[in-house]
Give the backbone structure.
Amino acid sequence: MVSRSDFPEDFVWGASTASYQIEGGYKEGGRGLSIWDAFSAEPGRVKNGDTANVACDHYHRYAEDVALMKAANFRAYRFSVSWSRVLPEGRGAPNEAGLDFYDRLTDELLKNGVEPWLCLYHWDLPLALHQAGLGWTNREIVPLFADYAGVLAKRLGDRIRTWATFNEPNMFTMLGYGAGVHAPGIRDREAWLDAVHHVNLSHGAAIRRLRADLPSGAKLGTVPNLQPALPATDTDEDLEAARKMEAAMNRATADPVFLGKYDPITRDWMGARIRPGDEEAIYAPLDWLGLNHYSPTYASARANAFGFRNMDPPEGAEKTLMGWHVSPPAFRDILIETSKRYRLPVYVTENGMADSVEPDAKGVVEDAGRVSYLDRYLGAAAEACAAGADVRGYFVWSMLDNFEWAMGYGPRFGIVHVDYATLKRTPKASYRFLAGLAGASVRA
């Protein structure tokens, strides 16, 4: 079993969440609606008709949740800000009540010795921008995102040192604009390419705004989801499909940001979208890279708009409740590859697994499968470190069971169980496992 001594003394232990998935309070304190509020309200979009109107009620219970982080010995907490809570229309005058919430959350974290890591965007675009035609498919969103970054920098920059622009830009652009299974539900290859390029440009603009408005010691990064793209078979067709999947799912939003140029496949797809000076505008030196990873993916050739289709893991492979392949070696390999390719300190900002384990008759949540998963994946991270990868921290996904996007409340990713009827929090066995690694053993 992995041990604390397998990692450097200054290794950062923490947990991650996302605003829309946990906050609730969707009409409180002047918050505007997001594209996910609208998407969830459409029949058939989310399993069981679930919405995040209440979610985990973190908006009211944040102090209880921060206390759980402290008791877990976590040094840091990566959270995202609801753009529409801060700017209900996505632009214009800030909503003071929304900013006050993030003031209170930041102060509570610092009071408890937990460092806040702020992510500007985790998928919940203000609905007003989308309805006005100013969403990710419109280049005019670029200065609006930079303005949003500036509002937060000026309000929270005196206390928050570590910032990220986007969480998984590769995933929300593909799922929301290419496949149409996430908000805003658009299924169009050209819309996906538009969104990818405008997100990349928005990243560059926001980094420049943050550099200008934050103290000099601020650490800036972004958070892609990186997964090895493997061919379903060893045929030439599937090998080519895997190369296209690699370009679409990994390189399209990572290479321009970290290397300053699109890879050849994506550049060909982008065509005239890339105007003179665009790649220079996207690229801005960063201080760290946040890597989200859950499993490898498998590609098969398909004569569709993308040239590949996502396949199930090989027959007999161990899978999570989400159907994702449990493969610690793939995690080790992507850590090594990412560290080598992008030459930045790497923090694992999401990793974990979904199950459906509920409290037993004594109220205890024995999520043995998650403990095994975390043990093996952290062992793979230790192997990557030993192989020379510059991995400096691990943030589990997720601190709390939460609204799992189009899957609703079925899959539970948290190390703390949430009873969605009563909102009672119950730390799981996995919580105690990570608390033991992060510091002295705790009783929870």
Q: What stands out?
A: Residues 189-213 form the longest helix (25 residues).
